[in-house]
Amino acid sequence: MKLDKFISTAGQQRIVDAIEQAEQATSGEIRVHVEPRCTSGDAYKRAVEKFNELKMYATERRNGVLIYIAFESRCFAIIGDSGINEVVPSDFWDNEKNLLAQYLRSGDATTGICLVIEAIGENLAKFFPPVDNDINEQPNEISYDEN
Q1: Residue 116 neighbours by CB under 8 Å, 6+ apart
Q2: Is 55 left (phi over 0), alpha (psi -120 to 50) or beta?
Q3: I need a labelling partner for 133 at 20 to 30 A (CA). Which of 61, 106, 116, 147 fits?
Q4: Distance separating alpha carbons of residues 25 and 131, to the nearest angstrom
Q5: Is residue 98 scored above 70 in pLDDT?
Q6: Rounded to 5 degrees, what are φ and ψ at 134?
Q7: Is the pLDDT of residue 61 over 70?
Q8: Which pTM does this prediction carry?
Protein backbone atom coordinates (compact mmCIF):
# COMPACT_ATOMS: atom_id res chain seq x y z
CA MET A 1 0.00 0.00 0.00
CA LYS A 2 1.33 3.41 -0.94
CA LEU A 3 1.49 6.28 1.52
CA ASP A 4 -1.30 8.17 -0.26
CA LYS A 5 -3.68 5.28 0.46
CA PHE A 6 -3.17 5.91 4.20
CA ILE A 7 -2.69 9.70 4.09
CA SER A 8 -3.95 11.62 1.06
CA THR A 9 -1.63 13.96 -0.80
CA ALA A 10 -3.52 16.90 0.72
CA GLY A 11 -3.20 15.29 4.15
CA GLN A 12 0.53 14.87 3.67
CA GLN A 13 0.81 18.58 2.93
CA ARG A 14 -1.23 19.39 6.06
CA ILE A 15 1.25 17.36 8.10
CA VAL A 16 4.27 19.09 6.56
CA ASP A 17 2.61 22.46 7.23
CA ALA A 18 1.94 21.42 10.84
CA ILE A 19 5.60 20.49 11.30
CA GLU A 20 6.74 23.82 9.86
CA GLN A 21 4.32 25.71 12.13
CA ALA A 22 5.28 23.74 15.25
CA GLU A 23 8.99 24.19 14.63
CA GLN A 24 8.54 27.97 14.63
CA ALA A 25 7.79 27.73 18.37
CA THR A 26 10.76 25.51 19.26
CA SER A 27 14.31 24.67 18.29
CA GLY A 28 13.20 21.02 18.38
CA GLU A 29 12.94 18.96 15.22
CA ILE A 30 9.84 16.88 14.47
CA ARG A 31 9.59 14.10 11.89
CA VAL A 32 6.90 11.63 10.90
CA HIS A 33 7.75 8.19 9.55
CA VAL A 34 5.07 5.88 8.16
CA GLU A 35 5.25 2.32 6.93
CA PRO A 36 2.71 -0.44 6.43
CA ARG A 37 4.13 -3.01 8.85
CA CYS A 38 6.20 -2.90 11.99
CA THR A 39 8.92 -5.31 10.93
CA SER A 40 10.32 -5.80 14.43
CA GLY A 41 6.95 -6.56 16.04
CA ASP A 42 7.56 -3.83 18.62
CA ALA A 43 6.64 -0.25 17.69
CA TYR A 44 9.04 1.37 20.16
CA LYS A 45 11.96 -0.80 19.04
CA ARG A 46 11.18 -0.10 15.38
CA ALA A 47 10.85 3.63 16.07
CA VAL A 48 14.33 3.61 17.62
CA GLU A 49 15.67 1.81 14.53
CA LYS A 50 14.06 4.39 12.21
CA PHE A 51 15.23 7.25 14.47
CA ASN A 52 18.80 6.05 13.98
CA GLU A 53 18.41 5.30 10.26
CA LEU A 54 17.02 8.80 9.71
CA LYS A 55 19.91 10.24 11.74
CA MET A 56 17.47 12.06 14.02
CA TYR A 57 20.28 12.27 16.58
CA ALA A 58 22.14 14.66 14.27
CA THR A 59 20.76 17.84 15.81
CA GLU A 60 22.83 20.34 17.76
CA ARG A 61 20.69 20.12 20.90
CA ARG A 62 19.73 16.43 20.53
CA ASN A 63 16.09 17.52 20.50
CA GLY A 64 14.58 15.53 17.66
CA VAL A 65 11.20 13.80 17.92
CA LEU A 66 9.98 10.95 15.74
CA ILE A 67 6.34 10.02 15.32
CA TYR A 68 6.40 6.47 13.98
CA ILE A 69 3.27 4.80 12.55
CA ALA A 70 2.88 1.29 11.10
CA PHE A 71 -0.70 1.48 9.80
CA GLU A 72 -1.31 -2.14 8.76
CA SER A 73 0.22 -3.37 12.02
CA ARG A 74 -1.96 -0.83 13.85
CA CYS A 75 0.83 0.43 16.08
CA PHE A 76 2.81 3.58 16.65
CA ALA A 77 5.39 5.21 18.92
CA ILE A 78 6.54 8.72 19.73
CA ILE A 79 10.17 9.02 20.79
CA GLY A 80 12.52 11.85 21.59
CA ASP A 81 16.28 12.16 21.53
CA SER A 82 18.50 12.17 24.61
CA GLY A 83 18.49 15.97 24.96
CA ILE A 84 14.72 15.87 25.43
CA ASN A 85 14.65 12.78 27.62
CA GLU A 86 17.19 14.34 30.02
CA VAL A 87 14.89 17.28 30.85
CA VAL A 88 11.29 16.09 30.55
CA PRO A 89 9.25 13.92 32.92
CA SER A 90 8.96 10.22 32.11
CA ASP A 91 5.28 10.60 31.14
CA PHE A 92 6.02 13.50 28.77
CA TRP A 93 4.58 11.80 25.65
CA ASP A 94 1.51 10.21 27.29
CA ASN A 95 -1.02 12.88 26.26
CA GLU A 96 0.27 12.88 22.70
CA LYS A 97 0.14 9.08 22.53
CA ASN A 98 -3.43 9.01 23.82
CA LEU A 99 -4.50 11.72 21.38
CA LEU A 100 -2.92 9.98 18.39
CA ALA A 101 -4.41 6.62 19.37
CA GLN A 102 -7.87 8.17 19.50
CA TYR A 103 -7.60 9.63 16.00
CA LEU A 104 -5.99 6.54 14.48
CA ARG A 105 -8.85 4.42 15.87
CA SER A 106 -11.42 6.83 14.41
CA GLY A 107 -9.77 6.67 10.97
CA ASP A 108 -8.66 10.33 10.90
CA ALA A 109 -4.90 9.85 10.95
CA THR A 110 -4.13 13.21 9.34
CA THR A 111 -5.97 15.28 11.94
CA GLY A 112 -4.51 13.20 14.76
CA ILE A 113 -0.96 13.56 13.47
CA CYS A 114 -1.39 17.31 12.98
CA LEU A 115 -2.81 17.79 16.49
CA VAL A 116 0.00 15.73 18.00
CA ILE A 117 2.60 17.72 16.09
CA GLU A 118 1.05 20.95 17.40
CA ALA A 119 1.09 19.62 20.99
CA ILE A 120 4.68 18.43 20.65
CA GLY A 121 5.74 21.86 19.38
CA GLU A 122 4.02 23.59 22.29
CA ASN A 123 5.53 21.23 24.85
CA LEU A 124 9.02 21.32 23.37
CA ALA A 125 8.94 25.13 23.36
CA LYS A 126 8.96 25.05 27.19
CA PHE A 127 12.30 23.22 27.20
CA PHE A 128 13.71 24.15 23.80
CA PRO A 129 12.53 27.63 22.80
CA PRO A 130 13.48 29.03 19.41
CA VAL A 131 17.03 30.31 19.10
CA ASP A 132 18.54 33.03 16.93
CA ASN A 133 19.76 31.76 13.58
CA ASP A 134 17.99 28.43 14.08
CA ILE A 135 18.25 26.20 11.05
CA ASN A 136 15.99 23.35 10.01
CA GLU A 137 18.19 20.37 10.85
CA GLN A 138 15.76 17.67 9.68
CA PRO A 139 13.47 17.44 6.64
CA ASN A 140 9.81 18.23 7.27
CA GLU A 141 8.48 15.76 4.71
CA ILE A 142 6.99 12.47 5.80
CA SER A 143 9.42 9.60 5.37
CA TYR A 144 7.94 6.35 4.15
CA ASP A 145 9.06 2.76 3.72
CA GLU A 146 7.16 0.27 1.59
CA ASN A 147 7.88 -2.97 3.40
Answers
A1: 67, 78, 96, 99, 100
A2: left
A3: 116
A4: 10
A5: yes
A6: -65, 140
A7: yes
A8: 0.95
